[in-house]
Amino acid sequence: SLSINSLNTNMFISGSCDTTVRLWDLRIASRAVRTYHGHEGDINSVKFFPDGQRFGTGSDDGTCRLFDMRTGHQLQVYNREPDRNDNELPIVTSVAFSISGRLLFAGYSNGDCYVWDTLLAEMVLNLGTLQNSHEGRISCLGLSSDGSALCTGSWDKNLKIWAFSGHRKIV
């Protein structure tokens, strides 16, 4: 997975199957500027935080994490409980942030989409428990440019748009 820093397009991060995230600078050839550790499984999704100084990750280990690009430290871990039916944690397939960065959206292999409070590391809502939620693995997430809606794509062959507040103007 890759994410380009929207505030400095020379910088990008990559998530890897070796459990690391690497920070790259296009002005420095052939090596990563920094490597971040913490996950215990493949990293499936990386996304820069809106301030461009932090980033979030989602992994096969079932966790999302928030890292500070400047210090190299892990700031937060977002853990969910195992499913009631078995003791396996669904893997995190995709992540996205709200415009303010207060919310982290995480898509999971079991069709859930958690909304995490990034400051408190608490789950605010599971879109997977709502009526008409996905019946398959979440494969991608995207936030509208004004932050009013989240789109989730799934292996159930559906895209769903989740509107958060306000009125939608149809153009």
From TrEMBL:
On the tree of life, the source organism's domain of life is Eukaryota
Keywords annotated in UniProt:
Repeat, WD repeat
Q: Which regions does the record annotate with the repeat WD?
A: 1-34, 36-77, 131-171
Q: Which GO terms describe its biological process?
A: signal transduction
Q: Which InterPro entries match?
A: G-protein_beta_1-5, WD40/YVTN_repeat-like_dom_sf, WD40_PAC1, WD40_repeat_dom_sf, WD40_rpt
UniProt keyword Repeat present: yes
Q: Which Gene3D superfamilies match?
A: YVTN repeat-like/Quinoprotein amine dehydrogenase (2.130.10.10)
What protein is this chain from? Anaphase-promoting complex subunit 4 WD40 domain-containing protein
- Organism for this UniProt entry: Aegilops tauschii subsp. strangulata (Goatgrass)
